[in-house]
Amino acid sequence: MSTTNAPATAATSATGAPTPAPAPKPAGATADSRPTRDAPTPRRARAWQIRFAFLSLVWGFSFLFMKVGTEGFAPLQVTLGRVGFGALVLLTILAVKRQRLPRSARTWGHLAVAAFLLNALPFSLFAYSELTIPSTLASICNATSPLWGMVLSVVALSEDRPTRRRVAGLGIGFLGVLTVLGAWQGFSGTDLTGTAMALGASLSYPIGWIYVRRTVARGRHSHLAMSSTQLLLATLQLAVATALFTPVPASFPLVPLLAVFALGALGTGVAFLLQYGLVEEVGPTTAQMVTYFVPVIATTAGVALLNEHLTWNTPVGALVILAGAALTQSKPRTS
């Protein structure tokens, strides 16, 4: 999962979360107001930790699922299945909770743009990138999203100002990218087109979040309603693109089909529900720490299950990127 400088109540994710706009606070609430809760029991503490671990696994394995999915289907078909199965999960929960989709045409219009920037475009770019680069490299490129987010937020959001800490984090993260790509070797052995697609996907998330923050972030609808609409619109967009640019599959091989189903139902639908449950229970700062486990799990899965080759600079560069990303998101301690 990749976080940006968007509202702290949510995190963008290349690996699954449909990145909805945050719901409004109740009247009279402040930024620090939270419902009074009893002290957490050991059982409750273990419960959120188990969900945190499961979310890390699901998002970490999402890159493997994409890789396996593209072995049987075109990238656009993989992405269509992903958002389609994810939308089905959220719409089912929406119906069970008897919530309604937004009715405003203006809201639907803004969410159509958000669906393209936060779902259809980056998911497709990642799927295409994995035709030529390992899933491990795609997951590391995903981890650069907070770095892009810092740069864009400084330009587009007046309340976000650069600090020495954040600028240092950006520089460290950039060095990490060069390390992963083996810049001292002239980028030999790296498919630059596939890598550029993966980096472009990670850039699309903060662009989308800034758009959401400026348009529908203060809407009156729930996270679930907004996200269901967003994924539904992404499904419609990809259905049109897939019909225009890819032939109908001649067959539906079981393993790639199951990978696409897991990518959508678990990595996009169920993961969204887990993420917002964690944000509500333990707060956004703790919940977004899942970001730093995703590349580790994705790399382990790629090497162990897909026999992907791993050179020393890949994990070292990944750690440098994550350190830089963490620095851009951190705040100096106040006495």
Q: What share of residues are in beta strands? A: under 5%
Percentage of residues assigned to helices? 55-70%
Low-confidence stretches: 1-39
Report the mean per-residue pLDDT as an integer. Answer: 82
| SS class | mainly alpha
* Major sheet summary line: none
How widely separated are the two ends? 31 Å
Along the chain, the helix and strand elements come as HHHHHHHHHHHH
Total strands: the figure is: 0
Shape: globular
Rg, alpha carbons: 19 Å
> Number of helical segments?
12
Structural commentary:
The chain has 335 residues and is mainly alpha-helical. It contains twelve helices and no strands. It has helices at 42-69, 75-96, 105-129, 135-142, 145-156, 164-181, 192-215, 223-245, 254-282, 284-287, 294-306, 313-329. Helix 3 runs antiparallel to helix 7 and helix 3 (105-129) packs across helix 8 (223-245). It is globular and about 55 Å long. 52% of the residues are buried.
